Amino acid sequence: ITPCSFLPLAIGSVSEFLLLAFADTQELQLLHFALFLGIYLAALLGNGLILTAVACDHRLHTPMYFFLFNLALLDLGSISTTVPKAMANSLWDTRAISYEGCTAQVLFFLFFFGAEYSVLTIMAYDRYIAICKPLHYGTLLDSRACAQMAAAAWGSGFLNAILHTASTFSLPLCHGNALDQFFCEIPQILKLSCSSSSPREFVFLVVSACFAFGCFVFIVVSYVQIFRAVLRIPSEQGRYKAFSTCLPHLAVVSLFISTVLFAHLKPPSISSVLLDTVMTFLYSVVPPSVNPLIYSMRNQELKDIVSNLFAYVHLQH
């Protein structure tokens, strides 16, 4: 060991990172590849069907489906940022990802992830207006307002991603280049740095945490008002219909928030490479592939239109 080995690695000296290897044998790596391929294809199919249905059928040109369209786009972007590289590494028996590729993964994953959280918050507002203030729905959520809210969601996600990515990759690295995760994730990169975080990163984390908590409170308050309004509906059929429009969104939000909270706020005493990998898989891969299923199961209108699409394609062949 030379004295130079104790010096921080300059940013430019790191040409690549090593991602977590899921298995030691080629057979298990191919099994991992097949598992991720199946999940990725399911996500492509489910979100692609939602995008096609909303874009092609004028009956779905409403605020609720406009935001669902945005959610499907973000889900596709999110899972396409992480899973293809993991599949390629398993297929070609390698762990390497270039420095530029790692930076791009962090940037795009934070972008899609942050924008998705904002869109889910907006969708809670959409359900609140539809149920609690139905007479003002067309005014408060006209096409211009919907476009502005969607642009704000995408813009906030991009700004958040730029700030965190720039701050993280400006840190000098002292502890090699091996990441205990199947994609580049900020907490794993911080473990390689000479210090746990920079003052700028701490400020950005506080701002992001405040924003995330504000969105969470907004969602909770919206649903408290929604449930109060639904319980005042006199007919049982009316209550069931109102609940049915909210349950898919509530299920998606619950899955999204619960997995993220447990992954990042679990006690250090129970932390391990396996548990961290499983929890990261649950919040980064599962929601984009499951969200279309959740929405289609409880939405008869969407199911009918998707069935018509399949029937049309079948007739064409």
UniProtKB/TrEMBL annotation:
Chief place where the protein resides: membrane
Subcellular location: Cell membrane
Entry function: Odorant receptor.
Pfam family, one: 7tm_4
UniProt membrane topology term: Multi-pass membrane protein
Similarity comment text for this entry: Belongs to the G-protein coupled receptor 1 family.
Transmembrane segments: 33-56, 63-83, 103-125, 145-163, 202-224, 245-265, 277-295
SUPFAM superfamilies: Family A G protein-coupled receptor-like (SSF81321)
Record's protein name: Olfactory receptor
GO CC, alphabetical: plasma membrane
